[in-house]
Structure formats: C-alpha cells, structure tokens
Amino acid sequence: MQKNFFAFVAFFVFIFSCKKENDSQYKMINRGEEVFKVKKSQIHIDDNTYTAYRLPSEIFVEEDTLVKNNLQKELVVGFEFKNNTEDLLGENLTGKDLENTIKYLSFQIQNDFKIVNSEGDTLSCLGAHFERTYKVTPFKRVLLYFNGVSEGEDVRLVYNDKLYKKGIMDFNLGNKPVKL
Length: 180
Fold this sequence. Notes:
alpha+beta
C-alpha cells in the first residue's frame, strides 16, 4: 500500500513539474485554412503594453514562386500598442491632438523602428502601415517592413518610443512562425 502511495505521489509530482508552453507567449494568425503560430515579445511600461511579432511571409503571397523567392529577404513585423485605462490616440497619452497623432502613426513612426540582425547590423524600417480600427479593437497595430533579413534569422526589433515617450525598447523576434 505504501509503495502505491509513493508511486502515486511520484507520478503526480512528475506530471505537474513538466513545463508547459505558455500560450499567452504566442499569437495565432489565420489565413483562410492555414493557421500560423508566432511568438510574441511583450514589454509592459506603466499602463502601456507593447507587443511585437514576426509575420510569416506565406500570408502575403499565394503560389507564385517568383514572389516567394523575392520575399526570402523581407521581414514584416506586427507591432501593437495597448493601454487598458485611456484612449491610445488621446491627447493625455501622446501630447498631440487626434489628427497629429494619426499623421505620426501613418507617416513618421517608421523612423522609430530598427532591426538588429544576427551579425549586429542595424537595418532601418522601409515602411509602416497603421491599421486604424476606429476603437473597434482595444489596441492599435502598425505593420513594419524591413529588407535584408533572412527568413529564419534571429533578429531584435528596437523601438524608440517618441509617441508615448517611454524610451527605447528591445524585442526579441528570434523564432520563425510555425505553420500548424
């Protein structure tokens, strides 16, 4: 009887000591029937949450191999801002009126982002696309475009937050998205 008890306790400890992946570290991206699991990198400062994740190139092209080959050195990063207490575009957080905040997000924010590749080279953001959702989502998203990054290469995204004035942040985008 005592052997069974010790076996049960050992089994119980073994089962609950196994490390499980935290699903909150990942984001699921759907493209029709395809689902991709991408690793998120988050930083929390005050009430703001900044999230960066690498987008798979497969979601941007169909079957054209020429286009796929051209995208081998391209990187698209999703970057999200979230604040649980105030409007992200409001003057209280940005110090700018709504129109100037939207102009900044649409035309100037790309200058705040850099990629540091595995060789230590710094690459500037080529472009950014601000997805305006008109308060439908609790976050704001910007898509960032970089050139000269290999598909599986470990990279870091460096963000100099000039919009909310929270300083320089470093996000690890090392993992390639996984198709499920």
